[in-house]
Amino acid sequence: MSNLESEYFERRRRQALEAAERADDPGIAATHRQFAELYGKAAAGTRPGTQPVLRAD
Q: What pTM value is reported for the model?
């Protein structure tokens, strides 16, 4: 993965965490946190592969 891709994923991780903080709905906040987690994994070079991105718990 290029440095540019890693920077992109890290920026998106931070944006998702900020969106989670601003969300009034707990479900929406949880969704943003899930995205942040996945962006963090992508920034670290570990991609989730074929696992489901979102889960209906």
A: 0.74
57 vs 25 pLDDT, higher one: 25
Residue 20 tokens read as 């989670």
What integer is the mean pLDDT of 41-49?
Answer: 76
Provide the terminal-to-terminal Cα distance of the chain, rounded to the nearest Å. 32
Q: Which residues contact 19 (CB under 8 A, 6 or more apart)?
A: 32
DSSP-assigned letters across all residues of 1-57 = --HHHHHHHHHHHHHHHHHHHH-SSHHHHHHHHHHHHHHHHHHTT---TTS-SS---
